[in-house]
Design brief:
This protein is of the alpha+beta class. It is about 20% helix and about 30% strand. The strands form two sheets. It has a six-stranded mixed beta sheet.
Amino acid sequence: MKIATYNILKGGSKRSHWATMIEDHNVDLLLVQESYSRKEHLPSMLFPTMGESVWDKAEPNQWGSGIFSKTGSLKQIHVPRFNGWVVGSEIRDASWQSNIETVFVFSIHAPAGNGGYAGQVNLLLDEIARISNGKEVILGGDFNLTVSHWPESERPSSKKNLAIQERLDKEFGLINCWQEANPNREPQQTLRWTRDRTTPYHCDGVFVPKYWKEQLQDCSILSGECWNLLSDHNPVVATFT
């Protein structure tokens, strides 16, 4: 089973991002940001029976955040104050669900605002905590701040970022898939800055419940020239048994 998060840049100009992740990389649960709706990326004429999805537009932009699942039923959740930047779904009866009846999944794109990105991430986490009300959650997306800790990094985590990482751990009971699968390794770049494409910046991540740790096989960041042409972000893909 594979979960991926991918900011596809201002809607996804080539409209191939969803199909590439789902078909070429066999992703079961795809969380997208800065994406056009499913009908643009998986038109029913070409993909008549492929999974279910939810999507919400981040006004005044034409793009927003979305969730796609190959199996199961999805019920969309609107996140107050963050519509289109964050979209959620209750997922039932997916093939990868075993003893859990409902999983709350959220695709996150942190906006700028009061308190900077850290302030906005804390606010959206407040809303997610209220909505999920202690039930199992999966989070993924572009947090616009460092989500993995590496003390020797050229761009070390600030105290605010470290507090958010701790909150995801302690309050939500989640593990960072990339950090868990790649211990004692400097976080790889997930965002290539327009003005500085070489400085590592690791702001995209997938977070799952801690008990999934035993099933986590790998978490990788897809990179290379083909990905550079599609977006300024790289997909993060977590693989589970």
